[in-house]
Amino acid sequence: MNRVRIASPTHDHGIKVLGLDPGTRNFGWGVVKRVGTRLVHVAHGTIAVGSETSLGKRLVAIEQALNEIVTTHAPDEASIESLFFAKDAQAAAKLGHARGVALLVCARAGLTAFEVAPTRVKRTIVGIGRADKAQVAQMIRVLLGLPDVPRPDAADALAVAVTHLQGRAFLAAKVAAKPLSI
Known about the structure:
Elements: E1 2-5, E2 16-21, E3 26-35, E4 38-48, H1 55-73, E5 77-81, H2 89-108, E6 112-116, H3 118-125, H4 133-144, H5 152-174
Parallel strand pairs: 2-5, 5-6
Antiparallel strand pairs: 1-4, 2-3, 3-4
Helix pairs in contact: 1-2, 3-5, 4-5
């Protein structure tokens, strides 16, 4: 597992979100915290399980890694990229298995998990709903002040977390008393 940690902020308040970009070969994750009006990078990485082992063993590896990430970073909420309709039904089913593992880990940890559409993530981060992965990764590097462009799956996960926090701030400003629905 490739994790990069950036120095934590001096203020220890604000909401911390775990963003997840599910995959059965490369599962991206990222943790972003809101401190006042700033978004602060906490950590990110990719759970690389490859394709040599069975799907069941890959799902177990994903679950173990996600449990460690949740324990280490103690997020307040989680946000998972929703499924998009692909031409390959078998690939979509495998992706659904990985999402199921993520939802299970979040539920067991007591985290409220939200879902965000890929087009919404791209629109929030880049301004265009059809942006490519390279554009998303570059904007995440700029928005979070990262020294390097993160790997695509980790960049997508950070983008999911940023989108969640941006939507949360917008909804909180609009209607403070209503429950969050992203």
